[in-house]
Specification:
Layout: H1 4-7, H2 13-23, E1 31-34, H3 44-59, E2 63-68, H4 78-90, E3 99-101, H5 106-118, E4 122-125, H6 129-135, H7 153-164, E5 174-177, E6 192-196, E7 210-212, H8 214-225, E8 229-233, H9 240-249, E9 257-261, E10 264-266, H10 273-281, H11 296-302, H12 306-316, E11 323-325, H13 327-338, E12 344-345, E13 347-348, E14 351-356, E15 364-370, E16 380-386, E17 388-392, E18 412-415, E19 420-428, E20 434-442, E21 460-461, E22 464-465, E23 470-477, E24 501-509, E25 521-524, E26 528-532, E27 542-548, H14 552-556
Parallel strand pairs: 1-2, 2-3, 8-9, 10-11, 12-25, 14-20, 18-21, 23-27
Antiparallel strand pairs: 4-5, 5-6, 6-7, 13-24, 14-17, 15-16, 17-22, 18-19, 19-20, 23-24, 25-26, 26-27
Helix pairs in contact: 3-12, 8-9, 12-13
The structure holds adenosine-5'-triphosphate and magnesium ion.
Length: about 550
């Protein structure tokens, strides 16, 4: 059931740390934060971080801040800021009054940079970028001190103020922390704290032409906001000594601690904003909300409810060891969430005409279809039966193998909520393709019930009445990448699957679906879970396949 994993509070090493801090009185009032950089849309990996940070705050009666890490105006946009807020809310979390931006702290961060300069802990470096990179050394060789490392405090102050005043072009100088060029940790080799960027910032406009780096902004922002547990992914573990060094060398109002957990990786899926940005920019997908994208916006458009995402994240859990989750686990969480509630409907994706010869021409009748087999409260809906119907091409074989129980000449099947029908003959076009099935029906099987003689059939098919079926477009999605580890050979774009979107245009859906609300999940009987796409209209709805009924992909790929 959908709720089992989320109904009892999860346990993991992060929650154990928080619990221990609370129990020991080290922390009163847990404060976490989710700190996205607004340079793209949120993806499944972010969902893990959001559920963890907001979840911990909720469970411990604390707060979780939403903080935009907006320190690189070259890549950041208001549209991303808006999308991120929309997506966090959609996922079911609320930051209340606690919406912050690293840019709110630019003035304070600047003052602290001056503080480091005064203490002899930071200097302005004029070394050109390539040379600076070369001087940084490698994992096995120490770096070299920059010749500018020995500047006086006064000179550094003057130059840093000139940097702020806009006297230098981009890249001409940086402010660096003076730590240790021989440190075994590359992050402590005089990391850059400020760079010159003549760029308009979405929030501060042209007020600044120098911007703090992630490393300088992040821990200090945590301190300003009184974050008690700064939870991030493992790649920041090597940054922690710098995080702590800055906190120790600055008159910050609090001493937050950083804890790292393993990032989410999923087979057949790329969770890197850089690569997702490339997919959008180069037109490999229709946008950030393309239903094949692992973004929250894409997943939502595909029809996945937020509850399914929370369920998936709960099942994955939080650990310290990096691992890759099978994408089938995501699909399973989606199915398990949708199955108990998604109304059942009928749709024919690849229609084949079925003509009932013994049903009077022009006659129709209304039958009753059950909306959900396990949820009687969902009630029933009327469906129309008539002489001309559509069934699925796949449900007919002219020369079937022995175990094919569906329609073939001479075979009787049940039409769900309709009648038993028997295929008598086929109509073909000039090329020999079957274009219609000529059948008879048994009037004593109304509603799909067995006839008085107790005759059984081995298959139940979905169908539509041709006269009132609504034409629809149906979009079938499969994985964007054709290997479980996209990019493992170096070029991730070479692993793009050419056929990840299949558009079916000649489809039909039952009239009840013409008014389906965008994003509302339905199950097309025997076919999968679908939802209406905003591209559709009432006359011509468009449906996205959210997920199939079971994992046919794994089977198809062996
Ligand atoms: P990407 O690696 O996709 O470019 P990012 O980490 O640079 O993303 P941010 O906006 O900085 O993107 O991320 C915000 C928060 O989300 C960070 O705390 C980061 O640790 C977390 N996060 C990002 N990707 C994942 C992931 N795959 N699994 C778990 N958490 C993630
Ligand atoms: Mg980041």
């Amino acid at each position: 059931m959908a709720d089992t994993a989320t109904s009892e509070p999860p346990r993991d090493f992060i929650r154990d740390i928080v619990q221990a801090d609370v129990d020991a009185g080290r922390v009163t009032g847990v404060v976490t934060r989710f700190p996205p950089e607004p340079n793209g849309f949120l993806h499944l990996g972010h969902a893990k971080s959001i559920c963890l940070n907001f979840g911990v705050a909720r469970e411990f009666g604390g707060k979780c801040h939403l903080r935009f890490d907006d320190t690189n105006p070259v890549k950041e946009e208001q549209a991303f800021i808006d999308a991120i807020q929309r997506d966090v809310k959609w996922l079911g979390f609320d930051w209340g009054d606690n919406l912050f931006h690293a840019s709110d702290y630019f003035e304070q961060l600047y003052a602290w940079a001056e503080h480091l300069i005064e203490g002899g802990f930071a200097y302005v470096d004029d070394t050109p970028p390539e040379q600076m990179r070369a001087q940084r050394g490698t994992l096995t060789e120490p770096g070299q001190n920059s010749p500018f490392r020995y500047r006086s405090v006064e000179e550094n102050q003057a130059l840093f103020r000139d940097m702020r005043a806009g006297k230098f072009p981009n890249g001409a100088r940086v402010l660096r922390a003076k730590i240790d060029m021989a440190s075994g940790n590359m992050n402590l080799r005089d990391p850059v704290l400020y760079r010159i960027l003549h760029a308009t910032h979405p929030r501060t406009g042209d007020a600044w032409c120098i911007y703090p780096t992630y490393d300088f902004a992040h821990g200090q922002s945590d301190a300003i906001e009184g974050i008690t547990h700064s939870v991030c992914t493992l790649e920041f573990e090597d940054h922690k000594p710098l995080y702590d060094w800055l906190i120790e060398h600055l008159p910050v109002p609090a001493r937050p601690r950083q804890y790292e957990f393993a990032r989410l990786n999923i087979t057949y899926t790329v969770l890197s904003k850089r690569i997702l940005t490339t997919l959008v920019r180069d037109g490999h997908v229709s946008g950030w909300d393309d239903p094949r994208m692992p973004t929250l916006a894409g997943i939502r458009r595909r029809g996945v409810p937020a509850a399914a995402l929370r369920e998936f994240v709960g099942r994955v859990g939080v650990a310290r060891a990096n691992s890759t989750v099978d994408v089938q686990m995501f699909d399973a969480a989606v199915r398990d969430t949708l199955n108990p509630s998604a109304p059942r409907r009928m749709a024919v994706l690849r229609p084949l005409k079925l003509i009932i010869e013994n049903y009077p021409e022009g006659q129709t009748e209304t039958l009753e279809a059950i909306n959900h087999p396990d949820v009687p409260e969902q009630g029933t809906r009327p469906i129309t039966f008539s002489r001309e119907l559509y069934v699925e091409q796949d449900d007919f074989m002219e020369n079937p193998p022995r175990k094919f129980y569906r329609l073939s000449p001479g075979k009787e099947v049940r039409l769900r909520y309709g009648y038993y029908v028997t295929c008598r003959s086929v109509e073909k076009d000039a090329d020999g393709n079957v274009v219609a099935l000529r059948c008879t029906y048994d009037p004593e099987t109304k509603g799909g019930n067995a006839p008085p003689d107790g005759r059984k059939v081995q298959a139940t098919l979905h169908w539509l009445s041709a006269a009132d079926a609504v034409p629809a477009e149906i979009r079938l999605y499969s994985h964007l990448f054709n290997r479980p580890d996209p990019g493992a050979d170096g070029d991730v774009m070479a692993d793009l699957a050419p056929d990840s979107l299949e558009v079916l245009t000649g489809c039909f859906v039952e009239p009840a679906l013409a008014s389906a609300a965008v994003g509302e999940a339905v199950q097309f009987e025997r076919t999968g879970y679908f939802c209406a796409d905003p591209d559709g209209t009432a006359e011509r709805p468009v449906f996205n396949r959210t997920v199939g009924l079971r994992d046919s992909y794994a089977k198809a790929k062996g």
